[in-house]
Amino acid sequence: MTTTPEKYIGRFAPSPTGKLHFGSLVTALASYLRARSKGGKWFLRIEDVDTTRIEKGAIHSILTTLEDYGFQWDDEIIFQSKRSDIYQDYLGILKTKNLIFNCICTRREISKNKKNTLSGEYVYGGKCRELHNPSRLKHAKRIKTFEERITFHDLLRGKLRQNIAEDVGDFIVWRSENFASYQLAVVIDDHLQGITEVVRGSDLYLQTPRQIYLQKCLNFMTPIYAHIPVVLNEFGQKLSKQTKANPILKENARDNLISALNYLGFDYGTQNKIIEISRNNNEILENAARYFNLKNTKF
Ligand SMILES: [Zn+2]
Measured in angstroms, how far is the CA atom of residue 31 from the centroid of ligand 1? Predict the structure, then answer.
C-alpha cells in the first residue's frame, strides 16, 4: 500500500505589537522560502490574541509591508482575536479531562517559585491545583502537568528534552483578562490550519515542549519544528519593539531582502543571480525559493 506524501503547509504568525523589523522579515522569509521550496502553502496568521498588546495600525502596516516585499500568502488570513469561541471549545475539552484549574496567584506569589535556569521563567509550584478556587474570583486557568519527558528534534537545533512538570510546571492556558494564552491559541491554530512544519524564531524554542504537551492532551498531531536564530542588534539583544528596532521600509525592500537572504545563508553569487533574473520583489522570493536550503541558515 502506498501513502500519498503529506502536503507541506507552513505559516508566518506575527503579533501586531508594532511594525515589521528586519528580524521579523528574516523569519517571514525563512518560513516562506521553506514552504515554496517544498511546493507547499504559506499561511498568514495574525497573533493578536493578547488584545492588550496590539498597537493601533500595526496589522495594516504588517500586511502592506509583506505585500511590498513580495510575499503572497495562501487562503484567508486568520485573526486570533476573532477565534475566542474556538479556543473556548478546546478549553472545554481539557476541562472534561480534569486537566484545568483556576489559579488566583498574584505576580508576587508566582515570583516566589523557583526559576528555570535555562528559560529564566518561574516554574509554577502547583499552589492552587487542589484549592478549587471559585470562578467568580479573578483567575487564570492553568493546565496540570505531570512528570513526563517531552522530546522533539528541531531541524536546526537538534534534540530538546524537557520534563514538563519539573522544567515548566502547570502553565497558563487561559489568561485572567479572559482570553486564550499564546500557547493554547497557537496549538489550536496550527492544528486547525493543518500546519505540517513550523519555521519560526529561536526565542520560542524552549516553549515548544509545552505546545507539544498541549497537542498530546488534545490528540493533535505534532508538526515538525525549525527554530532559526533570532537577529540581534549591536548590543546582542533580539530585534523587537522593546529594543527599538527600526521598522523596515518599502523604499529599502530590495536591499533588506538581500540582507535577509544573506542571513539565511545565500552566497553572493547566488544572491546576484537571483537579483539579476528577478523583475520585482515577488520574483526575488520565488527565485530564491529554488535555491533555498534551510540548513544553510547562519548561527
Ligand atoms: Zn495559583
Answer: 37
